[in-house]
Design goal:
heterodimer; A: 266 residues; B: 132 residues; mainly alpha; 0% strand
Chain lengths: 266, 132
């Protein structure tokens, strides 16, 4: 029997509203701290389900996915059954049962689930993305890349998919194409310093004269957007030592640039 | 905090009511002017004052109800974002990671029951400290 640990609300002296708000924050910001989600969410649904109202369904979904991460198949099944009872014909719930099958490594059954959804609704993006994830899980990266490219030809605005594709390309060491994906992301999110920084890192890895030049520019851009980005700062210092004799970026030039951006030792 | 928000909601309500009242008074004054044929007289000062004051009161009350303001600088709200969360793509989550084995409950591993029972709980307890 699992030992009964003190409940989360006792240990941290939080009320159910704070637990619910924490879960919302984790959900909106894409945190994957599954152990915590399971602990907080499990207590919330077992003891405060009546007070949650309609929020409870999305919490069930969130807890189910976290439970799959933590190998809590019992909890995942409970959440799934509650959702099935409430939304019997929902594609979203079908996708969740497909995800559960994926976690149990029953990929063929999961694929059948998603194909059924797609037959019913060919525009369902979630099912297509899960099929691509199955290919990734099975190690078929070339096929996954091809499918994801086809998906992006139809749904050009899907930023999550562009970032996923860039990650797949990086794993295949195809840095040119990864850089292209990150360029798409930078175009649609010009204020996001992290995309600039990742682009600069990919260009740096590619190597070669123009790429290093671009890399330096984008590290600087990332720092301009956020002068606390440590990785971009480090990247810029790396650039100071590199480059050919003609355009060697001296340490002094880098220091002047940093001063102008008001990045001090503090 | 809940008390405070209903106070500001009250303020907005009173402000809107006063605004409506001032408008109604102005309309009445206008029709009275038309009846007594003194159309060149301006609106009485108290109606004007009431309009302005109720407008200011409504604005002030709404600002308090509206919730937290965001920075105008678009990049500043991204300052705290890290790759930890940016890299997570919920639609593409995979489950074939070591969590499937690491978190498996001790009952399923009869061979090494003694060692495993001691291990998972302390790790879980330590990690919960990050909740706040």
């Amino acid at each position: 029997k699992r030992e009964k640990m003190a409940s989360v609300s006792e240990m941290y002296d939080v009320g159910w509203e704070e637990m619910r708000d924490k879960l919302r924050k984790w959900r909106e910001d894409n945190y994957r701290n599954s152990e915590q989600i399971v602990d907080v969410g499990e207590e919330l649904i077992s003891e405060h389900s009546s007070k949650l109202g309609d929020d409870i369904w999305i919490i069930y979904e969130q807890v189910m996915i976290a439970a799959l991460d933590c190998s809590r198949d019992d909890l995942a099944l409970t959440c799934l059954q509650e959702l099935r009872k409430q939304f019997p014909d929902s594609h979203r719930v079908k996708r969740l049962s497909g995800m559960r099958l994926e976690a149990l490594e029953r990929y063929d059954e999961a694929n059948k689930h998603y194909d059924a959804i797609l037959q019913d609704d060919p525009t369902n993006t979630a099912a297509r993305k899960r099929k691509i994830s199955i290919l990734k899980a099975q190690g078929k990266s070339a096929e996954a890349i091809r499918e994801l490219n086809e998906y992006l030809e139809q749904f050009v605005g899907d930023q999550e998919a562009w970032h996923e594709l860039s990650e797949l390309y990086i794993n295949e060491h195809d840095y040119g194409k990864a850089a292209f994906c990150l360029e798409e992301l930078m175009m649609t999110n010009p204020h996001n310093h992290l995309y600039c920084e990742q682009y600069a890192e990919v260009k740096y890895t590619q190597g070669g004269l123009e790429n290093l030049e671009l890399s330096r520019k984008y590290f600087a851009q990332a720092l301009r957007l956020n002068n606390r980005n440590m990785r971009a700062l480090f990247g810029l210092y790396m650039m100071a030592g590199r480059g050919t004799k003609e355009n060697k970026c001296s340490m002094k030039a880098v220091e002047e640039m940093l001063e102008s951006m008001q990045i001090t030792m503090s | 905090f809940k008390m405070a928000s209903s106070f500001w909601k009250g303020v907005v309500g009173v402000g809107l009511f006063a605004l409506a009242h001032a408008a109604f008074s102005a309309a009445q004054h206008r029709s009275y002017m038309r009846l007594t044929e003194k159309e060149n007289e301006t609106l009485p000062i108290d109606i004007v004052l009431q309009t302005l004051l109720s407008f200011v009161m409504t604005c002030y009350g709404i600002v308090h109800i509206a919730g937290e303001f965001k920075d105008m600088d678009a990049s500043s709200e991204l300052k705290n974002k890290t790759f930890d969360t940016l890299r997570n793509h919920p639609s593409f989550y995979l489950f074939n990671h070591r969590g499937r084995v690491l978190f498996r409950s001790p009952e399923e591993e009869p061979s090494s029951v003694r060692n495993q029972q001691a291990l998972p709980n302390p790790i879980r307890l330590r990690k919960l400290e990050h909740l706040h």
